[in-house]
Amino acid sequence: MIFEYFKEVELRLKNAEIIADKSIDLREFGAKEGMLRGRLLFVDGSMLEFMEYLQEENRLKYRFHLMDKEGNMVFRYDNAPHHKDVSTFPHHKHLPGNVAESDDKGIMDVLDEIEILMSNAITANRKT
Fold it and tell me: Are 6 and 106 in contact (CB under 8 A)?
């Protein structure tokens, strides 16, 4: 399970046109346990720092921190057990100025969201 997931992620990162540079560490602690962490630099200068710790079918810990080219937080997903007031506890999304509800997230979900953000930014720039 872990090996297949890591292969899917590697293929996605290899083929992602929005990624300018990457530093990835994949560690398997056995057939059913592993960690994926790294840093992705995107073509617009933004950066994602991330970590996923998986065991069997479960994502036990994760964090995905997206910063713009100036180093300002765009968003951060994590499942650290704080923000108990959020209905999706422990899953939540940090945004500048607040914390929002969130589902369990993986790197593929976050890459999808970043691709949409970048596409929307390109479309907005074309209109101006």
Answer: no
Q: Is the pLDDT of residue 2 over 90?
A: no
Asked if residue 126 has pLDDT above 90, the reply is no
pTM of the model: 0.91
Q: Please tell me the distance from the alpha carbon of residue 92 to that of residue 72, in angstroms, as a whole number.
A: 19
> Looking at residue 74, what is its pLDDT?
97
pLDDT at residue 125, rounded to an integer: 67
**Cα 110 to Cα 31, 56, 81, 85, distances in angstroms:** 25, 21, 20, 23
Count of beta carbons in the 10 Å neighbourhood of residue 116: 10
Residue 74: which H helix or E strand, with range? strand 73-78
Q: Are 58 and 38 in contact (CB under 8 A)?
A: no
User: What's the longest Cα–Cα distance across the chain?
Assistant: 52
Task: Report the side by side order of strands in the sheet with 98-101.
Answer: 19-30, 33-42, 47-55, 58-67, 73-78, 92-95, 98-101
Pairing mode, strands 73-78 and 92-95 = antiparallel
